[in-house]
């Protein structure tokens, strides 16, 4: 503004994703932006900065009589072992009792400074309608709280990613969003590393885990500089040819740290044509777990013989894969209809 005044735009949800769109006109009082949340489908708005009014231009339709008021979103902060405050985004059907009986799916990633924003998902409605609470942990290693948030979750600080996730899971149980036997977790790629690390560290905390194309053979992959991505990954994980980095990675590598103990029910997935995380990582992890663990819990390995890192291509095949993950979660959390 000419007088250098400014103001914040108010949004209705506690957690949301918003981003500006390039305006076609330079001299205009309108700001155009994208907005969505766990309960608001992707929407395009014009915001008049003089009147402070917004106009909805376009919103992705949701078939089947969707009513956003039936769901509740929350943003909470969880204190970790070193005092860091980890944001957690939650969504659930408003009538779901928060007395420890609800099933909950906790998702995490926490690497490369990537932000996991609270965005709308048509597929996730199938979980919410069945009474599942969905939680997104914005753990260190991601970029949600700035570059320092990433820096404190990589290289020598990588274990913060895993302890943050464990702290979030413990908080959700303590606050009675769910209980240990109704808690499932999910993550893919570096999020699959997260899954492998936390089930080694705290297998008692989770009922089930889904690890999609998981980066679980950290030591062998990072020691093989003939693989096309390895040396570039030194910036995130460290160079294992340096002793300090070697022992840090060895301390959390999921494959290396499998021990004789009870593990949650597991679904591991891989893609035969995956150029980022080779299919044999999930296969080796499954084989070592089967030879080592002390329980009869499910351990399923599914390798897509025609897909790569991002899973099946094509809208309907991708939905079938999502249905597979959600079906496993619902099955393990005792939801059969």
H and E order = EEEEEEEHEHHEHEHHHEHEH
Structural class: alpha/beta
- Principal-axis shape equals globular
Helix content: 25-40%
Largest sheet: 8 strands, mixed
Q: Nearest-angstrom radius of gyration?
A: 21 Å
Strand proportion, as a percent range, falls in 15-25%
Task: State mean pLDDT (0 to 100 scale).
Answer: 96
In spatial order, strands of the major sheet run: 5-6-8-7-9-10-11-12
Q: If helices are DSSP runs of H or I spanning 4 or more residues, what is the number of helices? A: 9
List unreliable stretches of 5+ residues.
none
Question: How many DSSP E strands?
Answer: 12
Determine the N-to-C terminus distance.
55 Å
Keywords:
alpha/beta; 9 helices; 337 residues
Quick overview:
The protein has 337 residues and is of the alpha/beta class.
SSE blueprint:
Elements: E1 17-20, E2 30-36, E3 43-48, E4 53-59, E5 71-79, E6 85-93, E7 104-108, H1 125-128, E8 133-137, H2 147-151, H3 159-174, E9 183-188, H4 190-201, E10 208-212, H5 218-222, H6 234-237, H7 243-252, E11 265-271, H8 279-292, E12 299-304, H9 315-332
Parallel strand pairs: 7-8, 7-9, 9-10, 10-11, 11-12
Antiparallel strand pairs: 1-2, 2-3, 3-4, 5-6, 6-8
């Amino acid at each position: 503004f000419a007088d250098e005044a400014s103001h914040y735009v108010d949004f209705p949800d506690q957690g949301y994703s918003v981003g500006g769109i390039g305006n076609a006109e330079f001299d205009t009082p309108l700001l155009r932006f994208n907005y969505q949340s766990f309960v608001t489908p992707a929407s395009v708005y014009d915001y008049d900065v003089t009147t402070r009014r917004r106009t909805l231009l376009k919103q992705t339709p949701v078939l089947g009589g969707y009513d956003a008021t039936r769901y509740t979103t929350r943003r909470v902060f969880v204190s970790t072992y070193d005092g860091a405050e980890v944001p957690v985004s939650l969504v659930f059907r408003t009538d779901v009792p928060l007395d420890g009986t609800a099933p909950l799916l906790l998702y995490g990633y926490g690497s490369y400074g990537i932000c996991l924003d609270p965005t709308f998902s048509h597929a996730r409605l199938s979980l919410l309608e069945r009474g599942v609470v969905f939680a997104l942990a914005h753990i260190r290693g991601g970029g949600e709280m700035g570059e320092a948030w990433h820096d404190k979750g990589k290289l020598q600080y990588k274990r913060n990613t895993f302890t943050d996730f464990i702290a979030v899971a413990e908080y959700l149980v303590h606050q009675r969003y769910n209980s240990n036997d109704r808690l499932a977790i999910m993550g893919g790629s570096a999020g699959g590393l997260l899954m492998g690390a936390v089930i080694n560290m705290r297998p008692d905390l989770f009922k089930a885990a889904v690890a999609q194309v998981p980066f679980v053979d950290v030591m062998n992959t990072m020691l093989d500089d003939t693989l096309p991505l390895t040396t570039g990954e030194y910036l995130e994980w460290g160079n294992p040819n340096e002793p300090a980095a070697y022992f840090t990675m060895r301390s959390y590598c999921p494959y290396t740290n499998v021990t004789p103990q009870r593990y949650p029910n597991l679904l591991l997935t891989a893609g035969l044509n995956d150029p980022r995380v080779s299919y044999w990582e999930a296969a080796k992890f499954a084989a070592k777990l089967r030879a080592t663990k002390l329980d009869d819990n499910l351990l399923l390995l599914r390798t897509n013989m025609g897909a790569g890192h991002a899973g099946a291509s094509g809208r309907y095949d991708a939905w079938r894969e999502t249905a597979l993950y959600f079906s496993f979660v619902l099955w393990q959390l005792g939801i059969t209809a």
